[in-house]
Amino acid sequence: MLDPADNLELPPIPSKRYFTIGEVSDLCAVKPHVLRYWEQEVPQLKPVKRRGNRRYYQRHDVVLIRQIRTLLYVEGFTISGARNKLALENPEPLDANRAKTIQELISELEGVLRMLDER
Predict the structure, then answer these.
(1) Which of 47, 46, 9, 39 has its CA nearest to residue 26?
(2) pLDDT of residue 89
(3) C-alpha distance from residue 35 to each of 7, 69, 94, 102, 118 (Å)
(4) d(Cα 9, Cα 38) in Å, to the nearest integer?
């Protein structure tokens, strides 16, 4: 495991829109092959892929990678434990159709409640 003080030594994240895998590797002190592995294991980590399947990470991806790094190397979580903890902290957003269906269901139930209250 790493010394917890190592996280304090990570460089600040520059104000850029996209980062290459090499830049993220340097910013997070994690090798590129480890980043690719984490993408397979952690559903929230989804960098944008462009030309020739090249990965471009955004700021929120870099922050998430630093979280994963801390969980694994400092706090001693397994990859499965880290995945579960992140799922609780950062749930995946609902897709538009599912969110719309849930909203319609809520509206219908509120209508049923109003009808029952009128009786």
Answers:
(1) 9
(2) 79
(3) 17, 10, 25, 35, 58
(4) 22
Please, what are the domains in the chain? Answer: 4-93 (1.10.1660.10)
User: How many angstroms separate the CA atoms of 61 and 16, rounded?
Assistant: 12
Token pair, residue 2, equals: 């790493």
Burial class, 55, CB count within 10 angstroms (exposed 0-12 / middle 13-18 / buried 19+)? buried
For residues 39 and 41, what is the distance between their CA atoms, to the nearest angstrom? 6
**Per-residue pLDDT of the chain in tens (119 residues, 90 and over written 9):** 455 445 558 889 888 899 999 999 999 999 999 999 999 999 889 999 888 889 999 999 999 999 999 999 999 999 999 989 988 876 666 566 777 788 888 888 888 888 888 87
- Long-range residue pairs from 7-16, CB within 8 A, at least 24 positions apart, any chain: 7/66, 7/69, 7/70, 7/74, 10/66, 13/59, 13/62, 13/63, 16/59
6 token code pair = 């190592």
Question: How far is the C-alpha of 97 from the C-alpha of 95, rounded, in Å?
Answer: 6
